[in-house]
Amino acid sequence: MFLDKKSFRKVCKKRLENSSKRAKLYKDKLIQKKLLKIIKSYKSKKILLYIPFGFEADIRPIVNIMRKKCTVFVPFMESVSFKIVKYRLPLREKRFSIKEPLNSSLKIDEVDMAVVPVLGVGRDYKRVGFGKGMYDRFFANLKKRPTTIFVQIEKCFNKKATTDKFDIQSDFYVTPKKIYITRGKRDVRRDFNSRSRLDSGRSFRRNHPKKAGVVKI
Hints:
By secondary structure, this protein is of the alpha/beta class. The protein has 5 helices and 13 strands.
């Protein structure tokens, strides 16, 4: 039986609400370690990261590391969507205690890599967010699809959860325990395989989300 997106979103929200706040710091560190390994493997020059809010995985250490090596962008909210601006200090606090850099008139419509927080992940490893569609609208306006990494402190994946055609799809899905390689380049896959032990089922097919590889790091 397939699970509609609205019902799946409620399940994921409940899982986050019931998760231990005391354990979040430890889970954040696990995610940071895995995420940095992926980013370094790709050597991207323009990366979209984010400033965490609420139960989103805290990737601020990654932001601080990568801004010394490449150009880091973060979302800047505008109406029902967002644009991206270069990460720079100081950050200003806006509504709902969301922090952002100063606005910029420079239009950015291309990045090499995007790290995206998720509420859940449904069929075909597509993103289920909070229902506002901001990331979907932003991705639709990019010149080309970037390497996309979903991050989540509490795994909430259901391959029977329905998704829409416009929902963005991941190349990697990172949780505190595992990295799910759902799409992507073979050289990165080989790099992970040579250093890490694959979880159940050692073989997986390129661009076949339903048989995604799972790597423990």
